[in-house]
Design brief:
This protein has helices at residues 16-26, 43-54; strands at residues 4-9, 33-38, 57-63, 69-74. It is an alpha+beta fold. Strands 1-2-4-3 form a four-stranded mixed β-sheet, covered by helices on one side. Strand 3 and strand 4 form a beta hairpin. Helix 1 packs parallel to helix 2.
Length: 76
Amino acid sequence: MSNMQELNLERLLCPMPVIKTQNKLRSMQSGETLKVICTDRGTMHDIPAWCKVNGFKLIKAEATNDTKFEFIIEVK
């Protein structure tokens, strides 16, 4: 994946991970991808739901361990 940017949102709680992800994605160009790292368990529901509602392509959403969650999102 070319042009991947990374956003580390560890230790931030709802709603900040979604807000910061939204702000970053809206500043990116079509075709670029964003890797988001979170520690708020709620993001496993919130970020995929936000992507669906707002037309962003969720490439990956996984728990990398009990406390860390990783997403890869593509700007359409």
